[in-house]
Predict the 3D structure of the following.
Amino acid sequence: MNFDKELDARGLNCPLPILRCKKSLGELTTGQVLKIVATDPGAIKDFEAFSKQTGNELLSSAQAGGEFTFFMKKK
């Protein structure tokens, strides 16, 4: 998937991946896509909840080898 910015949140635990995501989304313009890579197993629920609360669209999430990859589109 194409993305405009990448956030490496590996090794960070809740709430840091969400806080860094919020900051990174603030640097994007409407419609741009942020790729987030995290290792915190709680990130799946965290990013789903963050998406619902903020209106930023969670385009996809995937898990591979202990890493979670998310693509979020700025509202």
In short: Residues 5-73 form a domain with the Translation Initiation Factor IF3 fold (CATH 3.30.110.40). The chain has a mean pLDDT of 97.
